[in-house]
Amino acid sequence: MTELFRTRLRRGDALMGTLVSLPSLETAEVLADAGFDWFFVDLEHTPMGVPEAQAILQTVGEKVACVLRIPLNDEIWVKKALDTGAPAIMVPQVNTADDARRVVRYCKYPLLGMRSVSGARANRYGVKLAEYLQRANDEIAVVIQCEHIRAVENIEAIIAVEGLDAVFIGPYDLSASMGLIGQPGHPDVQVAIERVRQACQAHKMPLGIFAGSAEIGKSYLKQGFTLVAASGDTLMLGQVARTILADLQE
Description:
The chain is an alpha/beta fold. It has a single domain, classed as Alpha-Beta Barrel (TIM Barrel). 46% of the residues lie in helices and 16% in strands. It has 12 helices and 8 strands. Strands 1-2-3-4-5-6-7-8 form an 8-stranded parallel beta barrel, surrounded by 7 helices. Helix 4 links the parallel strand 3 and strand 4. Helix 2 (25-34) packs across helix 3 (50-60). The protein is globular. The N and C termini lie far apart (48 Å).
């Protein structure tokens, strides 16, 4: 049995991942063999649904921890995602402490929360339900996204919410919320990111971010970010294809 993703996350291990947006089991297999620590499985901005995400989980097994990003802070989406057996969930647009508390309530079984009970893949379709209910609250990582200037303004209150395991910055949506769409490198956006970094590190809250390239990702790792997603399946496919074609045409 591999070490729990939540254990590694809370310990501060450098966890390097990539965005998975294609509902392709073959692509997931290829990326899993590359050695990533985690997959940022995106159900928010892609055609992928819960069945496709669960199939990716089944395909990669324990090679890679799949963190499922759901489309919104919604009870139904949370329980559907967690019932796949995902070791972690990521919730977008968490802008206030109340938003964060709602995420925790949806993710935790009573008495810590309000997650409902059902037979699903997470508990071997009911066969290991009792065992799963005993350990789920301790094993599932709860990651919330800071991707709006309101979240930056409320970051201290957000990270004080009990039950959160990490904050993940979305630099592109953050820049858009600041009137600087498509400019994550703008000095004002970087100041906002720095505020979140300092607050999280001061309170020992694990911190993650999306980086468009390995070079940018390495710079974030040097700053103490530990949950870094660099590039993504479609980006890598497009970039490598263009590079090969350019080499052929030389």
